[in-house]
Amino acid sequence: MRFQPALDKIPAYEAGKPIELVVREYGISPEKVLKLASNENPYGVSPKVSEVIKEAVYKMPLYPDDSYKALKDALAKTHGVDAKNVIQGNGSDQIFDFATRSILSPGDKILQNGKTFSMYSIYAGQCGAETIQTNSELHDLDQFLDLYKKHSPKIIFICTPCNPIGDALDQSDVYTFLQKISPDTMIVLDAAYMEFGKTRDPKKEVQASDIISKFPNVLYTNTFSKIYGLGGMRIGYGIASEEMIRAFYKLRPPFNVSQLSQLAAATALSDREFVENYLKSNLKEMIRYEEFAKKKGLFYFESYANFITIKLDQAKLDSTQTFETLLKEGIILRNLKSYGLNALRITIGRPEQNDRVLERLSELL
């Protein structure tokens, strides 16, 4: 069987190690496994979400309302846009898929940061497009602009706050950059960690309603996997001009978000108390990791997300070996060697979870 030649150049996405793998391979009981690898919400989901899902189990045999009106209305209200500007996705990944397939042809190019979410280039590669990236770890918009002028990419991906580094751009810098880009170039603004970023520094907030009104070529994406704790429900969304959303709907498969997922997401939006409590805990516990790194003489990236990335070069430790040592003990972190970094990315957990990680890292150092 002959597959598309473009697939030969595309790596398979490597997700964080699941709890089930550690249980199988190392014989550790599930309750003793600590997973702080995939930037999930350590407090789970809102009690309101849990309750509404229990009450809606009877809906599982039924196809969802394919208009997704309740969910899109809730998102439109949250972001101050019209429901016609919203499209739901099976995770925000599916929105990236819509974006690339709607624009790219073989031989086209995309532009992204040197260290960023790997699915952008994977989706682009599926279309036969080439990925151009900066040589910087943090977002350097001057480099972006130089590469844009040189390569004329069809899509520019900006992830702010950025995974896996955690850096974030000021809104004013984003807008200044966008003013220099042709309206024929699609800009994908991945805002998966925006709630965390604006909590730490309000200057980092980019509002969907504002940016799409000023820049019709911008696609604003977000997810329910992080702040709302719905990673297992696989639901995200995009906000953009009506023209862009109409194009995406021609690529969208029917019933692309499950019955229970859309219900969980709409309910999650209504529980701000749960979100605010998590944001406060995340920032407080983030500072603990920063103080630990300073004390141990380790470099860390200032993070505006719900994780921190710590380099191990100063400690003369190898991130792969350190990751595997901790994995065998039931502590799952994210090794960033595949990103070209001798570093660990650690999801900020609950206080008692962070106690365990910090104590064990201190022993290894």
TrEMBL record:
Record Pfam families: Aminotran_1_2 (PF00155)
Say if the entry is tagged with keyword Transferase. Answer: yes
Taxonomic superkingdom: Bacteria
Q: Name one GO molecular function term.
A: histidinol-phosphate transaminase activity
Which reaction is recorded as catalysed by this protein? L-histidinol phosphate + 2-oxoglutarate = 3-(imidazol-4-yl)-2-oxopropyl phosphate + L-glutamate
CC cofactor: pyridoxal 5'-phosphate
Kindly report, in one word, the top-level EC class recorded for this enzyme. transferase
Q: Any idea of its EC number? A: 2.6.1.9
The record's InterPro entries line, in alphabetical order, gives: Aminotransferase_I/II_large (IPR004839), HisP_aminotrans (IPR005861), HistidinolP_aminotransfase (IPR050106), PyrdxlP-dep_Trfase (IPR015424), PyrdxlP-dep_Trfase_major (IPR015421), PyrdxlP-dep_Trfase_small (IPR015422)
Q: Which UniProt keywords apply?
A: Amino-acid biosynthesis, Aminotransferase, Histidine biosynthesis, Pyridoxal phosphate, Transferase
**What pathway is this protein said to act in by its record?**
Amino-acid biosynthesis; L-histidine biosynthesis; L-histidine from 5-phospho-alpha-D-ribose 1-diphosphate: step 7/9
> GO biological process annotations for this chain's record?
L-histidine biosynthetic process
- Where's the Aminotransferase class I/classII large domain? 32-361
| Record note on quaternary structure | Homodimer.
Question: What family is reported?
Answer: Belongs to the class-II pyridoxal-phosphate-dependent aminotransferase family. Histidinol-phosphate aminotransferase subfamily.
What protein name applies here?
Answer: Histidinol-phosphate aminotransferase
Q: Which organism is it from?
A: Leptospira hartskeerlii
Q: Lineage of the native species?
A: Bacteria, Pseudomonadati, Spirochaetota, Spirochaetia, Leptospirales
